[in-house]
Design brief:
binds zinc ion; eleven-stranded antiparallel sheet; 23% strand; alpha+beta; three-stranded antiparallel sheet; globular; single chain
Length: 386
Amino acid sequence: MVKKASITLADGRELIYFGDAAAEEASHPDLRPLPRVEVSSQVRHDPLLGEWVIVAGHRQDRTFLPPADHCPLDPSSPGRLTEIPAPSYQAVAFENRFPSLVARSGAAEGGGLVTGADGEDPAGLVTGADGEDPAGLLITRPGDGRCEVVCFSQDHSASFADLTQDQAALVLAAWVDRSAALAALPGVEQVYCFENRGREIGVTLSHPHGQIYAYPFITPRTTRMLAMSGAYQRDTGRNLFDDVLAAELADGSRVVLAAEHWAAFVPHAAHWPYEVHLYPRRRVPDLQALEPAEMAEFCGIYLDLLRRFDRLFDAPAPYISGWHQAPTRAGRPGFALHLELFTIRRAPDKLKYLAGSESGMGAFTNDIAPEAAAATLRKLGERAPA
Ligand SMILES: [Zn+2]
């Protein structure tokens, strides 16, 4: 069992240290004069697409602004207080100071949360409440949920691919812990652990970190996967995730690696120039359901994949990596935990932008054949030198 210890930051947010020194790290109080941030969040339903959009509005008391040259994710040192009060840490998770989603219990002291129903609307977000809506199509709900930041290492210049297997195992333990904790919050329907790496995809802090969103709805992509796998189950009596993994392994042309507990492939209809889906061979709904042997093997496999991505171009590729987990309540049967990793870079000097077809219609054009992408990623492997 991973050691952990939590503290409350000066503005009331929770922070959790992970690792053997967690208890000592948690003995350092947050010494910043940090006012509470007024957060308002709501979700609105798009009646044409049947999906929810998060609308977040924040007001900030600007008595605390970190200097631009001070990374807020470094450990604190005398005269330089950051988000992490301890002078050193291994891995840490904490509530985002400016979250898109926020638990309603956090607003019990008058935090200015928009509920849409009470009439209180400090951020002026509720537009549908005043007008007429005879068909009941303009649905607004509170943005119940939580957004957390996970720091993978105290080393500012590292990236996930630089971690040791033990460090990666600690991050995985943090993901497991937070996934279980956030799934248990009232109103949370889905937990998404993800990392955006690289300025090209809008990352403003280079410190190695990821985020976790606990949504008050099932996300559009997961909803699609549940619909497709549900229809497949009804039509064939079989599990779609199982059969896709089996089909990719049987075909083999897009398999990047296949180990004892995990297999990674570029999907037959990949959307992105370099895109890898990593599945445990044993279908499980979420991270909490992984067994120790699966967790142990994952760390080596994931580091291997990230290092292949780093070797694709002269400079480390920007990427998005995210865990697809079963919803916390509805739609759990049959869903398969997996990780999707992709880069928006298709060549050293070319980024894949979401242009008119992708942004306007959700119809993707991929400029690299998935088989060619898989062949390149296979060649870049540590275990099979080119
Ligand atoms: Zn840093």
